[in-house]
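Page 47, continued from p. 46.
Same chain as before, 165 aa.
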Amino acid sequence: MTQKTAFSPEEWTLLRIVPSLVSGGVSAADPGGLIGAFKEATAGMRAMYESLQQSNIELMKSLFEDQSRPAVPDPKALLGEGSREQQIANFKSAVTAQIDRAMSLLDQKALPDEVLAYKQMLMQVAERAANAAKEGGFLGFGGVKVSEAEQTFLNELSRMLKIQA
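Result:
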């Protein structure tokens, strides 16, 4: 059973913010309007909360019980410089790097069932975020629930985590 005390403060913060970054990665995969981004972020965070709340895995319980506000990464570090398109690409790369860091950390310090539960939570966050708002429509008409770019992000995440989407 892996608890918060097994991690440094920086490591614990990483584990706590990666689900938010995954949700943001979905939005960055196919940037839409403000309302769509809000719906995706809300759905992703709701998925994280439900996943943590319902889990009987010690690591997940510890994450759920920690009600403190984690440190947020510097937006400039995540976005970098350049055009909007370059900043979105930088953000997606930063999200991927943070996921890799978190998974490497868990592989070293957590039990296999805890690692699997965390991976499943990340997929649930991404899938719920991707399905939260239609992409490509106009005033709520037309569009698709999961765009091709969002599906590509989901597929990449699934490959990174080595689990089925």
